[in-house]
Amino acid sequence: MIEIKNITRKYKMGKETVIALDNVSLKIEDGEFLAIVGPSGSGKTTLMHIVGGLDTPTGGEVLFDGKDISKYKDKEMSKFRNSHIGFVFQAFNLENTQTALENVMMPLIFAGMGKKERREKALKALEQVELGHLANHRPSEMSGGQRQRVSIARALVNNPKIIFADEPTGNLDSKTGNNIMELFYKLNDKGYTIIMVTHNMEEAEKAKRVIKIKDGNLISDERNEGLANEA
């Protein structure tokens, strides 16, 4: 589904050039559960942002079903992300003044749906993460784990092909984090492709595939089918 060819990403910091990614190539198939790990500043989040269309590479190609999305203009990229990709972030990124249902409905506004259809799809997504009973609660009335489930429901609402999760358990205690990971496993079993950035090796090693990044380079790529099946 995704092929990354010779991706580089350079940033200017004053007079210095920082190489965040250095000639990285990678293939990601439908239905994979991929963990990207590496120390702070290794380039793992940059890689996720480029694959997810949130950043543009300095060089190379990002092929999605054979089309190079790295060449898309802003409007075309926004449309692509909204219809193909769901994002889950460490800080949840929810609107505190809106209910869980309203937060999950938000991506559907850009899809041009009527309000009734938006509500129905958003409620279905909340039920998918076992949170339908809190549809009318605001984030401030929820636990961290519940807020992350709302974030996951929002990522699911457009029925994306891929879910990107950036340190999804980083703000959660270990028990709650394990529950969120179990939810990702279930979603992967249903056919969703999961790409997760994490510093937690215990979580990463339960993914079906673990990629390690260091100093902008891909240093290892291992498959853990047995561990994934036990999770």
Q: Keywords for this structure?
A:
alpha/beta; Rossmann fold; six-stranded mixed sheet; 8 helices; 35% helix; globular
Quick one: biggest sheet? 6 strands, mixed
Structural class, from helix and strand content?
A: alpha/beta
> What is the overall number of helices?
8
Going across the biggest sheet, name each strand in turn. Answer: 6-7-8-3-9-10
**CATH architectural group:** 3-Layer(aba) Sandwich
How would you sum up the global shape?
A: globular
Please compute the radius of gyration using only Cα atoms.
18 Å
Task: Explain how this protein is built.
It is built from eight helices and ten strands. With 231 residues, the protein is an alpha/beta fold. The chain has a single domain, classed as P-loop containing nucleotide triphosphate hydrolases (Rossmann fold), CATH 3.40.50.300. It has a six-stranded mixed sheet, with helices on both faces. A four-stranded antiparallel sheet has the order 2-1-4-5, covered by helices on one side. The protein is globular.
What's a quick, concise take on this entry?
The protein has helices at residues 44-51, 74-84, 100-109, 115-128, 144-156, 174-189, 201-204, 225-230; strands at 2-13, 16-28, 33-37, 59-64, 67-68, 85-89, 162-166, 193-197, 209-214, 217-223.
